[in-house]
Every structure is written in structure tokens, then in C-alpha cells.
Design goal:
Chains A, B, C: InterPro entries: Ion_tolerance_CutA (IPR004323), N-reg_PII-like_a/b (IPR011322), N-reg_PII/ATP_PRibTrfase_C (IPR015867). Chains A, B, C: Belongs to the CutA family. Chains A, B, C: This is Divalent-cation tolerance protein CutA. The structure is a homotrimer. Chain A has about 110 residues and is of the alpha+beta class. Chain A has one domain: Alpha-Beta Plaits. Chain A is built from 3 helices and 6 strands. In chain A, strands 1, 2, 3, 4 and 5 form a 5-stranded antiparallel sheet that branches. In chain A, strand 3 and strand 4 form a beta hairpin. The longest helix of chain A has 13 residues. Chain A starts with a strand and ends with a helix. The relative contact order of chain A is 0.31. Chains in contact: A-B, A-C, B-C. Chains A and B meet through strand 1, strand 3, strand 4, helix 2 and strand 5 of A and helix 1, strand 2, strand 6 and helix 3 of B.
């Protein structure tokens, strides 16, 4: 296991995904953010099936910045409960690990 | 590590991915299913390189429902061996964890 | 935890992603490669925010082939430091595990 985490969250608009990325990069909370093409999101909410187009955001940062990223995401996200999940990176090449440590907030 | 898992499987048609999502949500085997844009899938099968367009399905649910989801996926999936993999979610914010526990089958 | 890993890397061109896939499959370093639709990639590099369209490549293989895949990726990738990360697959159904073990290099 490394000390790097990949965080996944979805946004209801492309513009919102872009703004969130800038907030995370400007604050040096994350090393990179990938905004994917919209996904067809189907989920259970208050007893009903809901369906929305959402833009997936994939964030790479240090594991010890997960909570800071969650806070920043919740502050700027329009949902009451944005689903935020983080995956520990198990394998990484040395150059990538060095880059992530270097560009993110001490 | 949390008790949440993210399951990845691909489907040969968009319609098939939608039907699979509904089956998983209706059975409350999963809290949410994201159907992504089609991917260019290249793989080794019976000694040859194969290429297909496939629709990726990303499923969030409780880890103890992984096998149940696999069963449901295999029952409805046209492939003999759909590649089904699950990743333990290492970090999650409390509100997301509560939501997943609440909406999935006890 | 299984002995399977999912590797993520992005490529600056679709053609590059295809060539990389073929190199990995031809060498039997990987069982399958999914090339996704381009992502809007934003990242910190040498003190500045950079933005590029990149094609995400998702690679499934055995965990003990991670370093071999990294070597092959770096050899064919145009970036000086391609960000290569690997996630241990925690859950897999037996048929998928058997297939990956069978088609990848001993």
C-alpha cells in the first residue's frame, strides 16, 4: 500500500466539475483531477429510483489529504450528500509518487 | 478499510447495462450504478486478441453483497464469463456510508 | 485480497493508447485493456496548472506483473513521467481469476 489515494465523486454539471477541480488544485489539496464524460447515474434515494447525468471526477492526492478534500468538495458541491469514496493506491511507480508528494500541500 | 465495495463489470450493449442496473437496484443489491460511455475493450481470449465496444458499469454497494451482485450479474449477463471485479473502498465520508447501508438490502 | 491488479494510466492520444494496449497484450503482460473516452485532465506540474485531453487506459493483470507493465508503459509512453497507479482487486469471481491467470505470461 502507498500513501496515495484516488478519490471518486460525481457532479451534476460539467461546469461544477471544472470549478471543483480548480478549487482542489489551487488549494494544492490534489495533484490531478480527471473530468470524465458524463455517466448515466441510477441510484436509490428516499425509497425511489432516481436517474441523472453526472460528470465523474477522479482525484489523485496523498491519503492524509482525503478529509481535507472531502471538506473542500462538500463546501462547493450542490448536493446535500455527494457520494465521495477513496481507494488506496496499492502500487505506484517512484516518479509518480514523488510528483504527487511534491505538488500537494505539505 | 470500510464495508463498502465498488464493483466494475462491462456489458456488450447499453441496453444490457441499463437492464442490469435496474435488476441490481430493484433487488436493493446496490445503492447506485453508473453507466459510462462505451470503452474500446481489447483482451486475450482463447489464444487470440479480441476487440469490442463495451459499456462500463460501476456499482457501489456493501462488501457483504458482492457475491449476491455477482450472482445477479451472471444471471442477466450475455457473456459466459463476465469479468467482475470489486475494490474495497478505503475512505468514505460518513453521510455516504450511511446512505449505502440504509438503501441496500439488510 | 486477490493476486489481480487494475492499473490506470492516461495517454495524450487515442492512437498511443491503442499501441500501448497492443504492446501489453502481445507481450501477455495484461489480460485486457479498456480505452475510455477522453478525459479533461487538469494537474499541477512545475508550479503551474496544466490542462490536456487524455485517453484513460484501464489494464487488468496479475499483481506480480505490475512492474513489468510499468516498464513496458514507460518504454512506449511519450511522457517523461506517465502517472501509473495500481489497485489491488479485493473481490473477483473464480472464472475471471482463472481467465486472467491463464492468458497472462507465466
Amino acid at each position: 500500500m502507498t500513501d496515495i489515494v484516488e478519490i471518486h465523486v460525481t457532479c451534476p454539471t460539467l461546469e461544477g466539475a471544472r470549478e471543483l477541480s480548480h478549487g482542489l488544485l489551487d488549494g494544492r489539496y490534489a495533484a490531478c483531477c480527471h473530468i470524465g464524460k458524463e455517466v448515466d447515474s441510477r441510484y436509490l434515494w428516499q425509497g425511489k429510483k432516481e436517474r441523472h447525468d453526472e460528470w465523474p471526477l477522479t482525484i489523485k492526492t496523498r491519503a492524509d489529504l482525503f478529509d481535507t478534500c472531502c471538506e473542500a468538495i462538500r463546501k462547493h458541491h450542490p448536493y446535500e450528500t455527494p457520494a465521495i469514496v477513496g481507494f488506496a493506491v496499492d502500487h505506484v511507480d517512484a516518479a509518480t509518487a514523488e510528483w504527487i508528494a511534491e505538488v500537494t500541500k505539505a
